[in-house]
């Protein structure tokens, strides 16, 4: 793309979930047509995409034929057919993040080998092929057993603290990673465009649900030292440069009890840990993603105000048509913004939306976040 901005560019997004939905909200400001491919006829992007195609993201022919009509293709989920994207790229389509990067990230085993090769700090690991294999590594416990492929939102992660826990291990190719006694989990979102310009968002702090492994709260800025923040941002830039990636990359990291920064995993797309940027930062992660893949100058990432983000998850024990309780009370709090993802049906722990809370005062911000968490519920 030259320095002449072409608003007729046909942008395709693989996946039509909430990330795609918020990306479309930014794409409207660039007057771009957005083509969405998603297997679900009720996907959150269905009614707001310029063109919606229903089809499986992992099927070669579906992705290839869909992509033929487009100029620029990006993703909002990693589990897509990489071979079709490689073919499209060969034919001159822009595919960002590049198919090779998606392929690397699709397998946590390959991801870990990438960190090892480039001396990026991460917890030590061994590859395991099945449950039997896990038994051979008793000296490696306590550890975390992770599926190589297709685990997400904690569904491919199992803590193996003692020999007895091996019964819970996955019987599929994966890895065993040393258990990290972390003090905090943090995330850095970094962007890079074709001109090789990079830019990081300020470090955010994540608090996870103790059982379901989903992000429960997020606080920005993270309460860590300046050295730790600088280290985390440098690591994020190092990774996106070593990947030679164009687009947006979320880097999940641990701050250990000893104060070290270790990389946990990466996602080459917009991320749950960047939702607060819509209200709280000069440029949102969604706009930044578009700027990166369109090779436009990256936007300023500074936070305008401290923020918190609470995921709005379907209440346990409720399945069916979603209803929201506590909306009035929550929206009466100053600095609260709601994002509903357009999902008609709720089920336990389904991501139905999120709430962003902003406040100049960090203590008051946390109080508000707790209040929101307690008050707003998704039932059926
Ligand atoms: N090595 C580890 N030590 C301790 N906890 C871990 C480790 N790896 C992952 N976890 C915990 O499990 C969560 C999910 O793991 P992650 O690899 O990020 O999988 P997912 O793809 O499901 O997000 C992490 O956010 C963290 O809370
Ligand atoms: Mg994760």
Detail the topology: elements first, then pairings.
Blueprint: E1 10-14, H1 18-29, E2 33-38, E3 51-54, H2 60-68, E4 72-75, H3 82-90, E5 94-95, H4 99-106, H5 108-117, E6 125-128, H6 131-135, E7 143-147, E8 157-160, E9 174-178, E10 182-192, E11 198-200, E12 204-208, E13 215-220, H7 226-242, E14 247-256, E15 261-267, H8 277-280, H9 285-293, E16 307-313, E17 320-321, E18 323-325, H10 327-331, E19 336-340, E20 345-346, E21 351-358, H11 362-375, E22 377-379
Parallel strand pairs: 1-2, 1-4, 2-3, 4-5
Antiparallel strand pairs: 6-9, 7-8, 7-9, 10-11, 10-12, 10-14, 12-13, 13-16, 14-15, 16-21, 17-20, 18-22, 19-21
Helix pairs in contact: 1-9, 2-3, 3-4
This protein binds adenosine-5'-diphosphate (ADP) and magnesium ion.
Residues 123, 144, 146, 151-154, 156-157, 177, 179-180, 185, 208, 213, 252, 264-265 line the site of adenosine-5'-diphosphate (ADP).
* Radius of gyration computed on alpha carbons: 20 Å
Instruction: Indicate the mean pLDDT.
Output: 95
- Report the uncertain regions: none
- What fraction, in percent, of the residue positions are helical? 25-40%
Q: What small-molecule ligands were found?
A: adenosine-5'-diphosphate, magnesium ion
Alpha-carbon distance between the two ends: 48 Å
Q: Helix count?
A: 11
Structural class: alpha+beta
- Major sheet description: 9 strands, antiparallel
- Name the shape in a single word: globular
Number of strands: 22
How large is the share of residues in beta strands?
25-35%
């Amino acid at each position: 793309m030259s320095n002449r901005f072409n608003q007729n560019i046909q942008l395709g997004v693989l996946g039509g979930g909430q990330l795609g939905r918020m990306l479309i909200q930014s794409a409207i400001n660039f007057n771009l047509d957005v083509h969405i491919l998603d297997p679900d006829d009720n996907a959150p992007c269905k009614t707001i995409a310029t063109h919606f195609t229903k089809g499986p993201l992992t099927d070669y022919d579906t992705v290839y034929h869909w992509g033929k009509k487009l100029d620029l293709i990006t993703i909002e989920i990693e589990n897509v057919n990489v071979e079709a994207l490689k073919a499209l790229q060969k034919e001159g389509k822009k595919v960002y993040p590049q198919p090779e990067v998606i392929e690397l990230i699709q397998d946590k085993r390959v991801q870990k080998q990438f960190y090892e090769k480039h001396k990026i700090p991460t917890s030590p690991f061994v590859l395991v092929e099945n449950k039997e294999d896990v038994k051979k590594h008793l000296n490696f416990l306590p550890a975390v057993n992770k599926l190589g492929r297709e685990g997400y939102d904690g569904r491919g992660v199992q803590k193996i603290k003692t020999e007895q826990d091996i019964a819970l291990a996955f019987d599929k190719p994966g890895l065993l990673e040393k258990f990290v006694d972390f003090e905090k989990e943090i995330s850095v979102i970094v962007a890079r465009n074709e001109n090789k310009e990079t830019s990081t968002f300020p470090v955010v702090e994540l608090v996870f649900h103790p059982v379901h492994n989903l992000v429960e709260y997020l606080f920005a800025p993270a309460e860590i030292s300046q050295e730790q923040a600088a280290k985390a941002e440098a690591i994020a830039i190092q990774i996106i440069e070593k990947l030679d990636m164009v687009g947006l990359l979320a880097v999940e990291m641990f701050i250990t009890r000893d104060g070290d920064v270790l990389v946990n995993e990466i996602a080459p797309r917009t991320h749950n840990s960047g939702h607060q940027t819509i209200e709280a930062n000069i440029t949102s992660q969604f706009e930044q993603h578009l700027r990166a893949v369109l090779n436009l100058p990256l936007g300023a990432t500074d936070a305008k105000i401290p923020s918190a983000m609470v995921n709005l998850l379907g209440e346990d024990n409720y399945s069916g048509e979603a209803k929201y309780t506590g909306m009035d009370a929550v929206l009466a709090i100053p600095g609260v913004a709601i994002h509903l993802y357009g999902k008609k049906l709720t089920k336990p722990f389904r991501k139905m939306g999120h709430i962003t809370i902003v406040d100049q005062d960090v203590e008051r911000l946390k109080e508000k976040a707790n209040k929101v968490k307690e008050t707003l519920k998704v039932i059926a």
